Transposase (Streptomyces toyocaensis), 129 residues
Amino acid sequence: MINGILHRVRTGAQWRDLPERFGPWKTVPERHRRWSGEGIWQQLLQQVQAAADAAGEIDWDMSVDSTIVRAHQHAAGARTDPPPEPSARGADEGEHQDETPWLVGRLVEVVLEVRAWAAHASGSPASST
C-alpha cells in the first residue's frame, strides 16, 4: 500500500493506472484517504523530522518574505466549511485503530531506509530540506 501511494505521488498517475503489483487499485486510494483522515501522514512527518533533527540534519533557520501579493477578485468567497465526511459504508469507526501505532512505525522505517539508500546511491550523506 505504501509503495502504491508513493508511486502515485511520485509519478502523478491516476489511481486506476497503478501497476497490479500494488494490489487492487481501489484499495490504495481508500487507504491513503483513511490514513490522511486519521493523521498518520502527519505523525510520520513529525517522527521523521524528530529523527533528522536529533541527527543534526535539519537547519531550522527560516527566512520570511514580507512582500504583499494581492489576491485576484475571483479568489474571494471561497467555501470556509470543511467538506462532508465520506460515508463509512458499514465499517466500524474503530476498525483500524489498532494498526495505527504499527503503521506509523513501519512508515518511519520505510522513509529512513529510502533516505539511507538514496544517500548511498548518490555517494553523499543524507540531508533534509
Observations:
- The chain has a mean pLDDT of 79.
- The helical segments are 2-11, 27-38, 40-54, 100-122.
